[in-house]
Design a protein that fits this description.
Shape: globular
CATH class of the largest domain: Alpha Beta
Distance between the termini: 39 Å
Oligomer: single chain
CATH superfamily of the largest domain: PurM-like C-terminal domain
Structural class: alpha+beta
CATH topology of the largest domain: Phosphoribosyl-aminoimidazole Synthetase, Chain A, domain 2
CATH architecture of the largest domain: Alpha-Beta Complex
Strand content: 15-25%
Bound molecules: adenosine-5'-diphosphate, magnesium ion
Low-confidence stretches: none
Strand order of the largest sheet: 6-8-5-9-7-10
Length: 321
């Protein structure tokens, strides 16, 4: 099968909202009058971002999910995406699974594939997503205010836990491993929650490299500090049964420095607490308050008794891990 047959069979779908989709030199998109475009790219490299054992269907889902998570973090509505794909060889079983996982998540989010590039090489997937948002509504990392509550959506640590089981560093009961593995291989981007937090949250980002490290980026962008509590790691909706089964020090590692969570980390004024819960309920996602924004530039992590934890929680960095 040649390159063009491959594109036609696995990656061409009739344009729904695009003026022109796959097939010409450019796709054409008519922006809605008065809306701003939100654009983001994420690349997945085999062995670096995913294990070669992952099912192609889940990989197709994840490649788009990590991109949609960036749109969610801005509160943008997904519109379209492009797919640049480097494949070692043509494997139709793989392509079928990959495109099924990809298009299934795309359809669920009203987001269409409008173009891309296909080449032979090491397995690498690069997606660029396009979303829209009314001017001034985008949720930024730089908006946190002193006194804001800090929240996370969903639960943290499962993806890293599954990775550590794959690496042979931890063990889990089979049902708990399957649940954690699903979070690693098939994360759910919090698109609806991001949109529902417009006008409610002051700052927002998605957690991809680990809570403490990512929170550090948000604090720096906002010019503020924070006090992060950890009583929620002992018992809250943000900790799954699988992570809960670990001893407390391991639980802290997974939840605070795990990575690959793709949950939203956001801040909101205390008088928005009710609106935050309403947004979460409307989207069927839990949110947990995990701390407060403070003056200064320090990030303090407190244990269950309110005593500062001095050890560092190191997040993922591609050039230092
Ligand atoms: P060009 O020669 O201009 O680089 P290509 O031959 O690479 O174009 O691609 C032909 C058409 O197929 C273009 O519309 C391009 O956007 C689309 N395309 C190529 N690869 C993919 C892919 N993996 N997914 C979706 N569309 C693709
Ligand atoms: Mg061309």
């Amino acid at each position: 099968m040649g390159e063009f047959d491959l594109i036609a069979r696995y990656f061409s779908r009739p344009a729904r909202h695009a003026v022109l989709g796959v097939g010409d030199d450019c796709a054409l998109w008519q922006p809605q009058a008065g809306m701003q475009l939100a654009v983001s790219s994420d690349m997945l490299v085999e062995g670096r971002h995913f294990l070669s054992t992952v099912s192609p269907q889940r990989l197709g889902h994840k490649a788009l999910a990590v991109n949609l998570s960036d749109l969610a973090a801005c509160g943008a509505r997904p519109l379209a995406f492009t797919l640049a794909l480097s494949l070692p060889h043509v494997n139709e079983t793989w392509l079928q699974g990959f495109s099924a996982g990809l298009f299934s998540l795309a359809q669920a989010n009203g987001c269409e594939l409008i173009g891309g590039d296909t080449t032979q090489g090491p397995l690498t997937i690069c997606i660029t997503v396009f979303g829209e948002i009314p001017p001034g509504d985008a949720l930024l990392r730089s908006g946190a205010q002193v006194g804001d509550d800090i929240y996370v959506s969903g639960n943290l640590g499962d993806a890293r836990l599954a990775l550590e089981v794959f690496r042979g560093n931890l063990q889990l009961a089979p049902d708990m491993f399957e649940a954690a593995r699903l979070r690693l291989e098939q994360p759910e981007p919090r698109v609806a929650l991001g949109m529902a937090l417009r006008g409610v949250a002051n700052a927002c980002m998605d957690i991809s490299d680990g809570l403490v490290g990512d929170l550090g980026h948000l604090l720096k962008a906002s010019g503020v500090g924070a006090v992060l509590t950890t009583d929620w790691v002992a018992d809250s909706a943000a900790i799954s049964p699988a992570v809960h089964s670990l001893p407390m020090n391991k639980r802290l590692d997974m939840a605070l420095a795990g990575g690959d969570d793709y949950e939203l980390l956001f801040t909101a004024a205390p008088d928005q607490a009710h609106a935050v819960q309403e947004a979460a309920n409307a989207c069927g996602v839990s949110v947990t308050c995990i701390g407060r924004i403070s003056a200064g530039q320090q990030l303090q992590v407190l244990d269950r008794h309110g005593v500062a934890i001095s050890r560092r929680f190191v997040s993922f960095d591609h050039f230092s891990n």
